[in-house]
């Protein structure tokens, strides 16, 4: 578990380290319920998120002596008094736990107590499975720990439920929406009740309904806090399926597309980092280099949301200033000059190190964006979103299949074409489907059916895309990638639909775009939560002069079904605009890229080895 | 889903049987496209089995594209041409297969004919 300080969480308008502290308290309370030394057994999906909440040293203070991954091979021997399983409520994991427990029983020996902590809730189904497997009685304690929204950065929280889109739209399993509603309630206890709620999409409606019901069940037992968050905007991924399919062009977005960022850290091929000075170069180069990406790295905070084309010049400019600052030591004449320089030294060294890391990462990314495949693919995407040649089979897509390029790339392009053409003609659609099956194998038929069910590819229907494109100004010409003036810079000319909605919500309000909202799938929800007068934010009276700065509203945008880094960048860009008047905090079920979206929907089928007789 | 289950069957006969059942299910729902594809898959499996017996090389569970590709690499133009006609592979993609297959096999003379 990597230990990350929480300092970068508190620099935003809403202090998210409050949330982190809340989780830490809950976790420790749950742990302290078992007396004596402990060993933790982790569901591998949870180690990452927990690493962001509590570091190992903190756990050690609470008598955690050992940590193991949950696996079939059972537990290594240890002489602790308590063994605590920490797991998501999934049946598969219950089987594993039961298996582990039975093995331990057979070993006998030193008497231990066993516990399970479910994250974020226990489920009846899981308890029943444990009973069926005959291990329920062995367990001393079953706890739950409501970790759902994990603070990633000063303006970003994620539930890290990677499959929630699939669960909601393919499996009709809305458990993750329930968790989302609950996590919103947690936020409200910490930051006050959010007065205005607005949402778009089926899932958004569900979450809002659940939230309101949960609030009624509280019967007014709410903490007396002045609301810090003014608006809640819930957006359903279903409302904007186009954006995540396109290639992200911000620095962070590209890193995610190429190397897959997980719980704010990324694993990179080590070759580039061998020459790094100091102790790192001695390490074994075969292990991937792990880099933690968040705003505690000042340089990265600056770079991540830039269009990748602007990254190079910033890095070189930074490098020059750093060298200049180092050179100051030559000009230092007096002792106090020297003193001043030395006091800056640790900071300078830190910056220089992160500079060298990001130079290497940027080189890796550039290698990728310079390939013909990437450039051609981007050109094809741009043609599609501009509605050029979307109504027939596109030769580039055909060529991709001919060259056996990764299936996800081909499917992504087909999905984009389908969206931008308001669905494909039956002839074109069948042709594509047949080609995919012939090229990549019959086993992908299930994936294709799933794509159709999720609405990612469909037969031609109402012509909505041209209207949406026009009235939400999705396509912008003359994008300035270096000094952007519109959110469309994150996709070099395409403004993400979801973020446009957020932009219009802040100003001039959704009433001005009712027509477009009706074209997008799912209902529009609007609710107002009443707040006692005493707790209302004091709006400065009309006459007061010094009101401008304090008037900035805070909007929490909750993406159900995931959000991409490029969209996050676009929202941050909006928050920085002076005339926007709104600051944004982002919550999501998971961080998404086109790749992970398709992986959710696709079903990997491994044919059994055929018997040759 | 019958199609998913078919991939667990170890014997060819079982697998075609399961796929046939799948076709019947889809006929009830009138999913013409899936029916056609499933039939093609059964046909392909049979072809692959025959080819395996003929040339004593593994072809099972390759996609059609890969099958033709392997055949091209192995200089079996006749059979690959036959498969192309049977499954109506479009020209553009067929030429891709040819070019890559021939390049892999180092048949520069053949390639030169394009």
Automatic annotation (TrEMBL), chain A:
Coiled-coil region: none
Pfam families: Sec1 (PF00995)
GO process annotations (BP): vesicle-mediated transport
InterPro entries given in the database record: Sec-1-like_dom1, Sec-1-like_dom3a, Sec1-like, Sec1-like_dom2, Sec1-like_sf, VPS33_dom3b
Cited PANTHER family: VESICLE PROTEIN SORTING-ASSOCIATED
Record family assignment: Belongs to the STXBP/unc-18/SEC1 family.
Name recorded for this polypeptide: VPS33A
Native source organism of the sequence: Mytilus coruscus (Sea mussel)
